[in-house]
Amino acid sequence: MKEATAKTTSPFSLDLLPLSKSHREFLKTLHGLGITQSVPSSKSVRRYLDLWLPLVAEYNNRCSSSLEMVDKEIGASGVELVGLVPPSDVAWLWHCHRLAPRRYVEYIHNQPRLATKHEESKTEEVSVTETKTLEADPPFALQHYHCKDNNTEYDEAKSTEIVEEKGEGKVLILPHTASTAAAATNARVLWEKMYPSESFFLPLPDTNDKSCVTLTIQDEEKANPGGFDLLGSALRQKDFLWQISDPNFDEPTFLAKGLENYHKFLILRTTPNGQNQIIVPTYQIDLMWHTHM
Asked: Is the pLDDT of residue 279 over 70?
């Protein structure tokens, strides 16, 4: 009852209570898959910045232009307006980047390749270019490919993900909804059309390939989009799961109180005293703050 009351009286346009639960499940899954337990590779950084973000921008262009989805360059057969689900390594970097919303938006706005085209009016076919923030839709979603010989520990019996058969392995999809499964397929279809020579899922690392674990100076520069330390963010954020793993975070009333405190926290930050000093939020508040980002 308290959870329902918090939902109806929430000052936020997003329903942060269920989203906060999805957020925690997202982090738990990434940890279980081993994604957050090591420094992201240069390959993952490249896949995120050079492949995934332009793909999301292209998808937004298709959504904004028309429902006919006609594209002479790469074709649009099989691509639908149902959202996109990134591969797990990309999902983690995208999440860490968006936790610095100002830096993320600045980076997107400074990349011409990430601009979104749209029709200026319904009567005139005038195309103008603007930059649209590339949001995760659906939020806190990922897909991960498991080979039969993959050594990653994963208890399928306890899994909450949808499991799809794919080749010699399985694709795990989070969250476990039909709409997310459709968005996951959608992402793979569009990726194949845009990058036919690139694997959608990150191949298992070659233990003899030093580039998978050692970052060069060029790699480190690449991992600083717009001056933002993306790898540093991943390093800091990997411990957040443990900070929100207390059993209290499974309780609806505790989460509802966290939402209430988060709203108060934002108000406090706008006061003269709040603007002139650093206010450190509790983990209860931090969960809602990160979820809102």
From this structure: yes
